[in-house]
Each structure stands twice: as C-alpha cells, then as structure tokens.
Amino acid sequence: MAYTVLARKYRSQTFDEVVGQDPVAQTLKNAVKTAKVAHAYLFAGTRGVGKTTMARVLAKALNCHAFEAPTAQPCCKCDSCVAVNLGEDIDVLEIDGATNNGVEQVRELRQNAIYRPARSRFKIYIIDEVHMLSVSAFNALLKILEEPPSHVKFIFATTEPNKVIPTIQSRCQRFDFSNINPKLIAGQLKSILKREKIKYEDDLILPLAKMANGSMRDGLSLLDRLISTGAEPLTVELLEQFLGCANSEKVHNLISKIGDSDAAGTLAAVEDLINAGLSEVRIVDALIDYMRDLMVLKSAGTQSELLILTAEQRNLAGELAEKFDVAAIIYNITALEKLRWTIKNSETARALLEACVVRFALSEHFLNVDELLSQMQRKSSCGPIKKNRPAAGAEYRPTNKPQKPVVAEAQNNEQRTTNSAIRDTKCEVPELPRLSDLESIKNGWQSVLAVIASKLGPSTCGLLSSAEPSRFENGVLTLTFPASAAVQKKLCESNSRVEQIQSLLEESFGRPVRIKLETDAEEQTTAEPGPDQTKAKGQKKNEIVNDPAVKTILMGLDATITGIEEDQSN
Q1: Closest CA relative to residue 441, chosen from 518, 505, 386, 501
Q2: Is 41 helix (H, G, I), strand (E, B) or coil?
Q3: Strand locations in 347-392, DSSP E?
Q4: Which of the following CATH numbers is that of domain 438-528: 3.30.300.180, 3.90.199.10, 3.90.226.10, 3.40.50.300?
Q5: What is the pLDDT of residue 165?
C-alpha cells in the first residue's frame, strides 16, 4: 500500500479539528446552522494554515448525505464526505488557479455552473491560488459571482489576496487565516507521534514547531523528513543533522562569548557553528531568534507567554540575559537583520559575519551616555574647552553590559584613568586674571574662558572659544570670529550673553567694559564660496546637527555647536 504523508493522513475533517483558526471555523459553523451561507468566500493566508482544508470541511457540511439539510457536524462517512476527502466528488470541483487561469477555462466553468448538481444539494467550486487568474478570467467571473444560481457556491483560496482584483473581493466574504502559534503546532505534532507510536525526545518538539514558521503543513512535512531517517527515538541531534537546525547550545555559547566581551571566544564559537554545517545566513537567523527571546525576557520576564521555550531553556536564557541590556539587544537584532541581506549576495559572507559579532563583543569599549556627559561637564567646569582635543566618534553603539545605549567610543586606557581622576577630584573655580590692555587680554584669554565656563556655563564658553581678542580701545573690547563661525557670533549676541560677559570682565578691569563682536572681513572676502558649494555645506551641516547622537550630547550639556571640521585624513 502506498505511503500517505502525514499532512494528508491527518488532515482535519471537521470545523472543530482545524487547528489555530477558531474564529473562522466558528463563524462558518454559525453560518451553516442559521442557513446564512454566502454564495462566495475568499480564504486568504500563508501556505499550510488550513485554507483548502477549511474549504473541504465547508463543502462536506453543505452536502453531507447523512442529514436532510446542511450541518455544522458532517458525518465524514457518507459517500459525499468520503468523495470530498479524496477530491473525487463530482459536485465539489477543486480547480488549480495556476494552471486553469485563462478566460476560456472560466467561460467553461460558467457554462457548467448553470446545471444542477448530480446528487448533492450544492455544486461547489474550490479554486486554489485564485490570484493566478488573468484579469480577463477575473472579469469573466464577475457576472456569475454577482448573480449566481442558487445551487452554486464558490470558495476561493489565495496566499496573495492583494492580487485578487477589488471587484472580485467585493463579491465575496473574506476570511483571513492567521499563522498558527508554535505551541498549537507542537501539540499537534505530539498527538500525531503518539498515534503513530513513534518515540521522541521532548526537547525535539518546540524547535521543530518553530521551524514550521506558523504553517501546520510545513511542520508535518518536517516531521515526515525526520521519520524517514528511520532513527528512533527522534532526537534534537537528528533535527540539527538532517534539517539544518542550529544547535541551541552552540548558539547560546556564541551569545555568551559576546556578552563576556571575549573576541577570541566569539570567533571560535562561530567556527564551531560553521563546522557543524550551518551557513552564515542560518547562523544569523539563529542569533536573531535567540536575541529576540532575550529581548522578550528582559522586557516581559521569564514567565512571559511570548517565550516559546522549555523550562530549562528559560533558565539558561535568563542567566544569559543578565549580560545584556535591552538597548544592546535591540541594536544587535537590527544590525544582524541588515547583515543578513548583505551576506546573501556576498562572496565574503564569513568575514562579514565574524566582523559583526566581534564588534558586538568589543562594545564594552564604548562609553554610555551618563558617563560621557559627566566627563564632558567636569572638563568644562575645570578648564577651557580646547579646539584640538581628541573628538569622540559620533555613533550609537550599545554595550553588552547592563547600561544605557552608548554614543561614543572610549579613546584609550590612559584617558580613562585620567577621567577617573577627574571624577574623584573636586574642581576649583579658576580666578579671573587682572586685565589692563590688549596684550594682557590675549595672554590671559584662556583663563577668561575658564571663568566663563564655570560661571556662565560651557555653552557660552564654547561659543567664545571660536573668537579671539583683536582690539581694545576706549573701553571697548573687540572679539573677532572667523567667517566660518558666523553662527556662533549670532548665538553670542542672543540671550543677553554679551551683557553677562561684560559684567564678568568689569570685575577684572575695575571699570565699565563694552564687548563688540565682529566677523573677520578679510577671511570672508578671500574665502567666498560659490552658491552650489554653500548649498552643499548647508545640507551637510543640517545632517550633522540633526543627528540623534549629536542632539543627545547638546541637550545633555546644554551646549552649542561651535564649529564643524571635515576629516581630511582620508
């Protein structure tokens, strides 16, 4: 006797047996009970979720010979029910829309539909993949769908309802079939294995159900492949060996090495997965799935129903989640998703994968927002902001340690030690030097900026750091800004900053002092940019100013951009 695959052998026979589509099944049952069955239905959903099965169940319910009228509980034993199950009933016609998609086939269908059924109550047409019909074929269906004979019912099934023209959809009752929950698939797989009297390991079921991606038919097909190996009991090792499923322990080890910031161990863990026969894309998929579980665990707790894990897996994931924070996991998932599409068409897929995971592992070399802002504020209050200080990288890079998202790369170990010393030492407010003429002003300008930073704030100091004292005549101090710092000059003139600076300098001079701000006219004349160049620089500046990382720093420090310099190292 020929072998029957599990998907056909255990196909649902009644509305109650259809797994994971309870709302649709209940609605159709009520329609049958109340004799309010529509003349046309459109079943939409991904593959293997029960569209054709539901269509057959509805056909049996309408034509079951064991009852004098349509019933919500077909007997599944009469000639009509048996013939529908086998696809051989002369009054229930299943048509493949992919091969019968021409207007001539639809015209033939219309001509035959006018004849009454041979032995049943209704003549039922089930058209699978109806979206494959041509526009002409769809148009040929319109009239009969709008005014069908009383003995005809249409059931359309499709995986792409967007391709079904609106005039067809408007004449049908549409039901959207959802993806089946992995827990429901797992329960069905267990039931079938028990009925088949096949031994299996409990740890096998959940990974197998998750591999089905919401499709019951795919889950049963995968189970068929495992059974065909002839091994018993069915184990997780068979799943990894024959179906290409990633070893959960090896994936756990890889993520653990990332969390420990062990770059060498991370590369070794990737090598271990590749040697097990996994492609780079499958490794990325496995990492995304596992990190998604960590994200849910960190956000909703270990007992969340969103986690499809065994009790042991929950405990292991809970321990691993302590090495990460939510922001780091979110960043890792998005980076892996971008990498997935890149390595599909790359000849250096392994190098890209290794570079990505090592980057995750080395994320401890980035500072978090609180630490960065604290350092910058202390530097600003302890002394002037120097133009030539090393600039931190303006990128978001979450660290794997439980902390907030990072925004800048740590410069080096020596600088970290210095920063720690700054934190532990209370900064003294510098004294304002005695000023009398232009020479003393120029010599003591850095000290003046230090006092301005401590008393008026780092933002005012940052704006003035672009200017230089140029003249001091009749109690008027002229500060000259370069042409590129015109924005800083305008900001200095706002918010009463000039008056505040004048009051501060009067303490040093011992007499009234006025501040005059001007732009370097010679530099502005010699370096007059063209219209296109000015527009391009303006667009670039807007991009930098609107960058989320830059905004975070500016808001945290109450700072203002004093200048933008282009990196000429490349």
Answers
A1: 505
A2: strand
A3: 366-368
A4: 3.30.300.180
A5: 93
The architecture (CATH level 2) of 182-243 comes to Orthogonal Bundle (1.10)
Task: For the chain, report the end-to-end CA distance as a whole number of angstroms.
Answer: 73
The pLDDT value given to residue 315: 86
CATH architecture observed for domain 6-176: 3-Layer(aba) Sandwich (3.40)
* Other CB atoms within 10 Å distance of the CB of residue 476: 11
Burial of 195 per CB tally in 10 Å (0-12, 13-18, 19+): exposed
The reported pTM is 0.62
- Tell me, letter by letter, the H, E, C secondary structure of 9-22: HCCCCCHHHCCCCH
Closest Cα partner for 45 from 23, 61, 67? 23
Instruction: Evaluate whether 451 touches 432 at the Cβ level (below 8 Å).
Output: yes
- Which ranges of the chain have pLDDT less than 70? 1, 364-436, 508-510, 521-539, 542, 545-563, 565-570
List all residues 6 or more positions away from 224 whose beta carbon is below 8 Å from its beta carbon. Answer: 5, 6, 7
Tokens encoding 495: 């918010």
* Structure tokens, 490: 């305008």
Residue with structure tokens 């649902």? 12
Edge-to-edge order in the sheet of strand 468-473: 468-473, 476-481, 514-519
Boundaries of CATH 1.10.8.60 in the chain?
A: 182-243
Max Cα–Cα distance, the chain, nearest Å: 115
What is the rounded CA–CA span in Å between residue 378 and residue 374? Answer: 6
Write the burial class of residue 40 (CB in 10 Å: 0-12 exposed, 13-18 middle, 19+ buried). buried
Token digits of residue 199: 């031994």
β-strands 468-473, 476-481 pairing: antiparallel
Q: H or E element: which one contains 504?
A: helix 497-509
The 10 Å CB-count burial string (b at 16+, else e) for 511-537 is eebebebebbeeeeeeeeeeeeeeeee
Q: How many CB atoms lie within 10 A of CB 275?
A: 9
What is 248-364's CATH number, 1.20.210.10, 1.20.272.10, 3.30.450.40, 1.10.10.10? 1.20.272.10
